[in-house]
Amino acid sequence: MFFQPALATAATNGNGHSLGGAVMIGAIVALVLILFLIVKLFGLILRHPFISIGLFALGGFTVFKFALSGILILGVIAAVGVASLWFNWGNN
């Protein structure tokens, strides 16, 4: 028996945008934002090695884990925001 994915068969809203499209657009925006911010973070680490060594000596990987988790959370928030704009959840 063939089962279609739930996102592929999602009903569209009034403007023709589907939930699957909202998820896809949100994932693309999150991926681009996360990659951009990680590249910026590692660029700063390589540009200022003494500050990075000092932060590493002060807190180990904790500072960098905190920065990466903040980047990931920001990506998720951006994905939800873009998906809600795409699907028009804010317009009643």
In short:
The chain crosses the membrane at residues 20-43, 55-87. The chain is an all-alpha fold. It has helices at residues 19-47, 49-59, 62-87.
Shape: elongated
Q: Residue share in helices?
A: over 70%
What is the CA–CA distance across the termini?
38 Å
Mean of residue pLDDT values: 77
The H/E string reads HHH
* Number of H- or I-type helical stretches: 3
Low-confidence segments, given as residue ranges, are: none
Work out the radius of gyration. Answer: 19 Å
Word description of this protein:
The chain is mostly helical and 92 residues long. It has one domain. Helix content is 72%, strand content 0%. It has helices spanning 19-47, 49-59, 62-87. The protein is elongated. The mean pLDDT is 77. Keywords: Membrane, Transmembrane, Transmembrane helix.
